[in-house]
Amino acid sequence: MDLADEDNHQYSGFYPCRLPVWWGRVGDIGPHYQTDGVTGKRVVLRIEKRFTRFERFLAKILRAPREIRRPLDQMNSMLWELCDGSRDFQSICRAMDEVFKENIAPAVDRTASGIDALKSRNLMTILEHPFNQKWNIGPGKTPVNQTLDDLTKKIEYDVEPRTHNEKNLIEAIPKESPPGDRSE
């Protein structure tokens, strides 16, 4: 079934893809689209905080956490799992509409808003071609440019790779490269 404006949207024909960030799945299986990589579980993102010298001083005194844990709701969790760079925008919109029906209507606009929110936080990008394994998008992997503490055993995260893109993990930046050097 075609959705209104799916072919006229600015993301039409493009491939939304998550950027390198630690993420895992938690909780029970909820409503989800029946395809590889989509589990119906909630997604939690872990992002390292970047402090200025003064903020670092205050954080040490106040024992502030060194990372942000951002749990996604049911819809954004499914959107996160669908955006692995192998599906185009239209197929993601159709999958979201099929599962969430009137809760996501109009599906094209709501899906684009979810992608835009993740893009504004530097968690997602839009590719012109399907994802070619340039960076790690799999669950449970700390990106090269972040330092995250080991997880405590309070929460059991599901970090099992579920798709071809998640299983073929590579590091885009070799470990011996100096920080900030992103040459290919």
Provide a concise account of the structure shown.
The protein is of the alpha+beta class and 184 residues long. It has one domain (15-160). The chain has helices at residues 53-62, 74-82, 89-100, 107-120, 164-167, and strands at residues 15-18, 22-26, 42-48, 67-71, 124-127.
Describe the protein.
This protein has 184 residues and is an alpha+beta fold. It has one domain. Helices cover 27% and strands 14% of the residues. It is built from 5 helices and 5 strands; from the N terminus they run E-E-E-H-E-H-H-H-E-H. The strands form 2 sheets. Strands 2-3-4 form a 3-stranded antiparallel beta sheet, covered by helices on one side. A two-stranded antiparallel sheet has the order 1-5. Helix 3 packs across helix 4. The longest helix has 14 residues. The termini are far apart.
What tags apply to this protein structure?
alpha+beta; 3-stranded antiparallel sheet; 5 strands
Helices and strands in order, then pairings?
Blueprint: E1 15-18, E2 22-26, E3 42-48, H1 53-62, E4 67-71, H2 74-82, H3 89-100, H4 107-120, E5 124-127, H5 164-167
Helix pairs in contact: 3-4
Instruction: Write down the secondary-structure element order.
Output: EEEHEHHHEH
Q: Supply the number of structural domains.
A: 1
Assembly category: single chain
Distance between the termini: 41 Å
Strand content: 5-15%
- Unreliably modeled segments: 170-184
Q: How helical, in percent, are the residues?
A: 25-40%
Largest sheet: 3 strands, antiparallel
